[in-house]
Amino acid sequence: MNLRRIYVLRIGHRPVRDHRVTTHVGLVARAFGADGLFLEEKVEDSVVQTIRKVCYTWGGDFKVEKLKDPINFVREWKNKGIVVHLTMYGLNIADESMLNLIKSSERDILVVVGGEKVPRILYDLADYNIAIGNQPHSEVAALAIFLDRFFDGRELLRNFPGARVRIIPSSRGKKIQRVM
């Protein structure tokens, strides 16, 4: 049984300007199967609070933590796991051999997503620089597509333990079940 865990590191956050994008990176990471999110120290506390509130209400065991030195964190991560950097400059995810190599690893995975100004060293530190298409796109979309392909869509059927509310699927309208 594989106990590998997947975490996301969001780098390149621009305070105030990227508040919503960084929050969405966290929401997508949680909903699409990641175990946690690491953020730069400069990320507003309200981003962390929003993600934690979603976890409290909608369930799951999702870790959110701020880091003083994300690049050093990536260096240290390489001792215990692999680093996948999502970038439009990487090898296209459509080349399934790259994705199969990542899937075959039993080591923990750190998926790094960033904005425009990703430090050059990250491209060298990453074990895999993977592109979700080689055109400009959102890091939120890249993360969603990567996680969906990594989990073969199974993450969309997960139950989140400890949920206080759940959606009851419906073809029309909104149906919510309060659990607690």
Automatic annotation (TrEMBL):
<dbReference type="Pfam" id="PF01994">
    <property type="entry name" value="Trm56"/>
</dbReference>
<comment type="similarity">
    <text>Belongs to the aTrm56 family.</text>
</comment>
<protein>
    <recommendedName>
        <fullName>tRNA (cytidine(56)-2'-O)-methyltransferase</fullName>
        <ecNumber>2.1.1.206</ecNumber>
    </recommendedName>
</protein>
<dbReference type="GO" id="GO:0106059">
    <property type="term" value="F:tRNA (cytidine(56)-2'-O)-methyltransferase activity"/>
</dbReference>
<keyword id="KW-0808">Transferase</keyword>
<keyword id="KW-0489">Methyltransferase</keyword>
<keyword id="KW-0963">Cytoplasm</keyword>
<dbReference type="InterPro" id="IPR029026">
    <property type="entry name" value="tRNA_m1G_MTases_N"/>
</dbReference>
<dbReference type="InterPro" id="IPR029028">
    <property type="entry name" value="Alpha/beta_knot_MTases"/>
</dbReference>
<feature type="binding site">
    <location>
        <begin position="114"/>
        <end position="118"/>
    </location>
    <ligand>
        <name>S-adenosyl-L-methionine</name>
    </ligand>
</feature>
<dbReference type="GO" id="GO:0002128">
    <property type="term" value="P:tRNA nucleoside ribose methylation"/>
</dbReference>
<keyword id="KW-0949">S-adenosyl-L-methionine</keyword>
<dbReference type="GO" id="GO:0005737">
    <property type="term" value="C:cytoplasm"/>
</dbReference>
<comment type="subunit">
    <text>Homodimer.</text>
</comment>
<dbReference type="InterPro" id="IPR002845">
    <property type="entry name" value="tRNA_mtfrase_aTrm56"/>
</dbReference>
<comment type="function">
    <text>Specifically catalyzes the AdoMet-dependent 2'-O-ribose methylation of cytidine at position 56 in tRNAs.</text>
</comment>
<feature type="binding site">
    <location>
        <position position="86"/>
    </location>
    <ligand>
        <name>S-adenosyl-L-methionine</name>
    </ligand>
</feature>
<feature type="binding site">
    <location>
        <begin position="132"/>
        <end position="139"/>
    </location>
    <ligand>
        <name>S-adenosyl-L-methionine</name>
    </ligand>
</feature>
<keyword id="KW-0819">tRNA processing</keyword>
